[in-house]
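Can't paste images in this forum, so I'm doing it all in text. The chain is below; anyone willing to post the predicted structure tokens underneath?
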Amino acid sequence: MKNQEDKFKKVISHAKEYGYIFQSSEIYDGLSAVYDYAQNGVELKKNIREYWWKAMVQMNENIVGLDAAIFMHPTTWKASGHVDAFNDPLIDNKDSKKRYRADVLIEDYAEKLNIKAKKEITKAAKRFGDAFNEKEFISTNPRVIKYFSKRDEVLKRMAKSLENEDLADVKDLIVELEIVCPVSGSKNWTDVKQFNLMFGTKLGASADSAMDLYLRPETAQGIFVNFSNVQKTGRMKIPFGIAQTGKAFRNEIVARQFIFRMREFEQMEMQFFVRPGEEIKWYEYWKEKRLKWHLSLGLGKDNYRFHDHDKLAHYANAAADIEFNFPFGFKELEGIHSRTDFDLKAHEEHSGKKLQFFDHELNKNYVPYVVETSIGLDRMFLAIFSTSLQNETLEDGSERTVLKLPSVLAPTKAAILPLVKKDGLPEIARKIIDDLKYDFNVAYDEKDAIGRRYRRQDAVGTPFCITVDHETKNNDTVTIRFRDTMKQERVKISELNNLISQEVSIRNWFDKI
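Text version of the structure:
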């Protein structure tokens, strides 16, 4: 646990030191759970967004994009259920005065049971070697059976209590499990209460006539209210999808864990409209498709897992999360939900407008069912950044800090470094930059010894360093250094564009999907 905390602290400090993320309004002592993306962070975030958009919209003929407004008519949120049901169960510790989400406290307890079971499995695998039968061990080992059954029992009880809005039983469960406050270690808890997460605001010229509005808590509703507009103008046929990226806002009372849970965040969502009765087939399809997209970035298969929901949202008939192994453990990265026809029917009812599709093959009108894929862009940023940040001990015993970002996403693709600041080398370096900058983000660095410049580019995550030296003047060749292996090659200046393209091309990365 201590190692995880130390790693997370390094992630946060590295993000600031190398121009990725700053605390918002830092000169005024900051604003809790609000962050600004700095010069490198904004590039990485843009590249992640583009990697998602191209995979989702450009590569699928039947998926189109949308950019709906943040402000929406207030009845939208009544129809969607957010006014009545968009709540978090919160509990306070009387001694530390800290507030927590009750369901997260219980889920963290369940995850500890999971970790204990996994430790037993790992120990047994080491002990038995090739003869180890994991399936048999899990089904017969008393300790593992106990941990897993306790975990399942706890999560099922919590899901049932939340579904029945039995908040007293949620508190009873916390007390029975002897869950302590992470800050004070105390078990002195208040009752559990529901808290609505939407930010309210006003629209209008004067206080008397202003309309009460909400900042949108999700981007999905902008897609649903535009279903007919997009379908008719795009002449879309079922099945088809509408994708959107954009800001959403939630008044998270217990926002924490850096950019994992913020009050202002960005979502990348796609709503896929299907025939009623075919939603589970498409739900399974998108589960598999989305996991492949994640795996294409090479962050490690073991860092992902599916978590099927015990407690389903009021609109869903199936739901799963793709969880990622963050520095603080496995947490939700992306949700895949079968939302049925809840949203379109609710908006039909509240607006009085038809939101239906005439299916020529079936010769009938129907309200489509929806399968949703929804990923937090900020969480994706954190997953990539925290996994890529590594400390390495080199052959000579020295250490380096390297940010091994997938090269397709790296903010700067190459740094051009003149060996010395004279003899015409900076001028050659500048010419190389002028040639490459049309296709790639490139940087120029002439300060400090070449080894120190390499380390700086390693830490910022630049995949290639191109060094211009005296030999360059004789034969138009440069040294290209690869960040991950530190291997160096002598190449022609004329070959640089192709070489970098090979490594950072989205086409080549998509081949893994």
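DSSP finds 18 helices and 23 strands in the chain. The mean pLDDT is 92.
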